[in-house]
Amino acid sequence: MIWFLVRRLLATVAVLLVMSAIVYGLFYLMPGDPAVLACGKRCGPDQLVVTRHKLGLDQAVYLQYWHFLQGVVVGRDYSSGPDVNHCAAPCLGYSFQSDQPVTNLLLDRLPVSASLTLGALVLALVLGVGAGLLSALRRGTFVERLLTGVTLLGFSTPVFLIGLILLLVFCAWLKVLPFPSYVPLTENPAEWARNLVLPWCALALIEAALFARVARAGTLETLAEDHIRTFRAYGVPERQVVRRHALRGALAPVATITAVELATIIVSAMLTESMFGLPGIGKLAVEASTSVDLPVITGVTLLAGTAVVLANAVADLLHAAIDPRVKLA
Amino acid sequence: MTLFDSELAAGADPVLAPGEEPVPAAGTDPVPSRRGGAWRRLRADRSALAALVLVGLLVLVALAAPLLTALEGQDATTFHSQLLDSARGGVPHGAFGGIGADHWLGVEPGTGRDVFARIVYGARVSLGVALAATALELVVGIAIGLAAGLGGPRVDAVAGRVIEIAIAFPSLLLALALLAIVPQSVPRPVLVALAITAVNWGNVARVTRAQAMSLRTRDYVDAARLAGVGPVRIALREILPGLTTPLMVLAALKVPSNIVSEAGLSFLGAGVRPPTPSWGQMLSTSTTWFQTDPAYVIVPGGLLLVTLLAFSLFADGVRRALDPRSTRV
Question: Could you tell me which of A85, A37, A88, A34 has the C-alpha nearest to residue A56?
Answer without folding.
Answer: A34
